[in-house]
Amino acid sequence: MPNFQRIFEQFNELTVVVIGDVMIDSYQWGRVDRISPEAPVPILTSARREYRLGGAANVALNLQALGATPLLCSVVGSEAQAALFSQLLGASRLAQEGIVADSSRVTTTKTRIIAGTQHLLRIDEETTTPLHEALEQKFAAHVAQLITGRRVDAIIFEDYDKGVLTPALIGGVVRLANERGIPTLVDPKKRNFAEYKNVTLFKPNFAELCEGLKEEVDKKSYEAIFAAAQKINERMNVRYAMITLSERGVIISDGREYAAIPAELRNIADVSGAGDTVISVASLCLAAGMAPRWIAAVANLAGGLVCERAGVVPIDKKQLLEECLKKLA
Question: Catalytic: 276?
């Protein structure tokens, strides 16, 4: 049984590098009273607009909320949205030294149009092509310099398929991490799914598992999911495969055995950002020396807690500790 109090205090001493696709989550709130005379669409009377950090930046916010020191590494554009992203980092007291700006990119912005509690529309502004070779090399060298210039307790690859994470970058960072004994964790997407070889913990959701392996898996059978997870352990030389299963909880496999953690009954308000929270918590639990079963159990609790709150929000450390002491101890 882990000493949760001690481990949560240990989080304060950890530094985690987060590499991946960052974005701005924009929310346009208002009300709808009429339909447009120009087309059969609602007219939103805007009341307020809010900007939040999203993607890999939300992972950094979760790590910060847990007491750790995050170092966020990504590539943004050089337009007004990039300046806004920089302002949001500053307001959140997140370090900017890992951010590279380049005019060939667009700073990913997701704008959600919401009337009351009804989500009407989402508008995405983004670049999804991989970094061009010169920028890839520049960014890779910058990341390597940051990793070797300080003590790093874990590295997270947060892949939203926007092109920042490339096979060459992934391979180079994983080799460097393994040489230095730094655990690596991955929140994958389809394009680079098979590129994350030799990492410590690989965390797809169920849909990503099936898509990445290109096979159907029975979600009702933990044994079937374990068999699929074993393929990741073996084919990609991954130490732990942790599959998030939404209403079925989480399963974690080391290739020889597995632990299945059922989901907690929750009043779900919004599942946005839950994966960011899960990988953040898992990284700190892994760096703190927790056994696989407990990593999955704590991360599962954390994912459920953030789903009770609307929008993309970081985890509450005190609340998570209380949940662990109440439900896991």
Answer: yes
